Amino acid sequence: MHNLIYNEWVKIFKRVGTYVMIGLIIVGVILMGTIQKVYLDKTNENNTNWKTEVSAQIKNDEENLKHTPKIAQNFTKQQIEVNKYRLEHNIPPETGSSMYSFIDDSSGLITFAGLFTIIIAASIVASEFGWGTIKLLLIRPIKRSKILLSKYLTVVLFGVLITAILFGSAALIGVILFGTGSGENIHLAYTNGHVVEQSILLFLVKKFLLSSINVLMLATMAFMVSAVFRNSSLAIGIAIFLLVMGSNATTILAVKFDWVKYILFANTDLMRYVDGVPLVEGMTLGFSITMLIIYFVIFQVLAFTVFTKRDVAA
């Protein structure tokens, strides 16, 4: 298995496009940091009036809560509780940009990085048919399931690499441009109806990992489509469409329909259970993990069944 994964890894990094993808991630982080530094950066200063400002924000949020659309009410209530906790425990909000705030902002690029993982997942099987190299793989005394598994594990490793590069470059650019901040390094998270204090670094690592779940599931879907239909364009098209529209459409439907909780995209954002509220009332972390496992198994069963049973030598 190790040799199979190594061979797949070599194939990926023989492509110029792979280095272009990695370069685009780094350039995106640099560009984002530069724009933030030039146009949006705030000077770190001690704000002696922060309690007055936070109290005013709480009052304003409470007054506007009844006029807030239902889809945003839970978020507003969460912010009210977090601000009350700040006042009670004398924890001032961050007053300027820092390495940690920049890493947090850079998490928005996970979708961009995920796009490249999806491209690899969609092409890693279909390209073998396009190039005719699938025959060279199948004449070797190795089970088809093992060949396909090595390709999927390579996709996962590539996704981990891209995410690590994004996190690492954001940390490096962040500390160069903004420094490490005031030194508080505390994140106030709203979990299970309570506000809790967390290490900001631990929170950011957790946020990057959990935010990658959506990408992992879509990459798995693209991998399945690639194995079943041998068409990378179809796999990429479906995965990108769902990457852009899936979560947004599910959020809108969740306003009126409880059955939405059974849709894949209602369960991919596990950050809701770490620092937020469920999309549909009554959803739990265990329920979402169970739904993700069910979808994951379905995708893999389809991919492995078709690939191992169909005549792929033609």
Structure description:
With 314 residues, the chain is mostly helical. The chain has one domain. It starts with a helix and ends in a 5-residue tail after the last helix. The protein is globular, with a radius of gyration of 23 Å. The longest helix is centred in the middle third of the chain and has 35 residues, at 144-178. It has a two-stranded antiparallel sheet with strand order 1-2. It is 70% helix and 4% strand. The protein is built from 14 helices and 2 strands. The mean pLDDT is 82. The chain has helices at residues 2-13, 16-40, 50-64, 70-89, 99-106, 110-123, 126-131, 134-138, 144-178, 200-211, 213-229, 232-253, 271-274, 285-309; strands at 186-191, 194-199.
In short:
By secondary structure, the protein is mainly alpha-helical.
Distance between the termini: 25 Å
Distinct helical segment count: 14
Write down the overall geometry.
globular
Based on CA atoms alone, the radius of gyration comes out at 23 Å
Task: Please tally the β strands and state the result.
Answer: 2
Overall mean pLDDT stands at 82
Question: Percent of residues in beta strands?
Answer: under 5%
For the record, the count of structural domains works out to: 1
Uncertain runs: none
